[in-house]
Write a structure and sequence with these properties.
Number of helices: 8
Strand content: 15-25%
Radius of gyration: 19 Å
Strand order of the largest sheet: 6-5-4-3-2-1-14
Distance between the termini: 31 Å
Bound molecules: zinc ion
């Protein structure tokens, strides 16, 4: 088995944001495809899953399709494309669906509830594919890959996923407000420029990532008015990168108010801050719809900026 390849189908947070002002990075909400040689993994089913759906139908016009979904959490922007995932309506296909099963209702009922009655014309039962709902745990195997999860600080909870396969490490930490779990939370509330102190278990989850995909929704200025809403400031992202040293960090879950030029500015400033901190081994860029990346150490001449 070779390593992992990631493809971004939706990178926007909160609500789909189509239009000219977002056409560079894309307006679809979260969806990431991750592949090994013969396995397809899908992280979240925001509106970006609709384009993935079309791509898979082209690739598997008659053959049966098997794939594994991993849901980080069930906020609308992470599930709203699921009822439009056409391959799930074909009986020949088979999907495993992982998510947090520790809630008061099952993952199946919660996802199915969005298709119930007044919300959608057909129910989950119309999906004829085999759907196997599965609970995540802190560490488990799916075929040839090892998956680790970490509860992230976000209203209602969110799971971070770490996937390890044949020496490649992919980490997804969307929808998180890391300041909420910093050991020096009180200090950074008063002085946001103070370096965040994170505990060893949190850093261990992030360490050694070839590709880290992280919630980078707010600038520091916007964050000041949105503390407690569950998303990172730029300062929180930079501090994590300084400590965990991912080889590539894809800024993700772009704010609906961040048009393309704003996202560019966020990337430039993130790179500048890393440089100021003398961090030269972390390549930062913004996740963009359609971007495909090998989850491995980037080759030196490559600059995504
Ligand atoms: Zn979200
Ligand atoms: Zn959320």
């Amino acid at each position: 088995m070779s390593g992992l390849t990631a493809r971004f189908w939706g990178v926007r947070g909160s609500i789909p944001t189509p239009g000219r002002a977002t056409e560079r990075y894309g307006g679809n909400t979260t969806c990431i495809e991750l592949r090994t040689d013969d396995r397809i993994f899908v992280f979240d089913a925001g509106s970006g899953v609709c384009d993935l759906s079309r791509s898979l139908i082209n690739e598997f016009p008659e053959r049966s399709l098997e794939a594994t979904f991993f849901f980080t959490h069930l906020h609308w922007d992470h599930i709203q494309g699921f009822p439009f995932f056409s391959p799930a309506y074909e009986a020949r296909n088979k999907f495993s669906i992982y998510g947090d099963e520790s809630r008061d209702q099952s993952l199946k009922d919660l996802l199915g509830g969005t298709m119930y009655g007044y919300y959608f014309p057909v129910t989950l039962a119309a999906m004829q594919a085999e759907l196997a709902f599965q609970a995540t745990s802190s560490e488990f195997d799916v075929g040839p890959v090892r998956v680790k999860t970490l509860p992230l600080p976000h209203p209602g909870g969110c799971l971070g996923y770490r996937v390890e396969a044949n020496g490649s490490v992919f980490v997804l930490a969307t929808d998180c407000e890391l300041d909420q779990v910093a050991a020096n939370r009180d200090e950074i509330e008063k002085s946001p420029e103070a370096p965040r102190v994170h505990d060893a278990a949190l850093l261990e989850f992030f360490e050694g990532a070839n590709l880290l995909v992280i919630d980078a929704q707010y600038t520091d200025e916007v964050y000041r008015g949105k503390a407690g809403w569950g998303h990172n400031s730029m300062a929180a992202v930079v501090d994590l990168c300084v400590q965990a040293r991912p080889q590539m960090v894809a800024l993700f879950h772009h704010d609906p108010a961040s048009h393309d030029r704003k996202v560019n500015e966020i990337v430039y400033e993130t790179c500048d801050r890393l440089k100021e901190r003398r961090v030269t081994d972390v390549m930062a860029f913004a996740a963009r719809e359609g971007m495909t990346l090998r989850v491995e150490k980037p080759k030196p001449p490559l600059r995504v900026r």
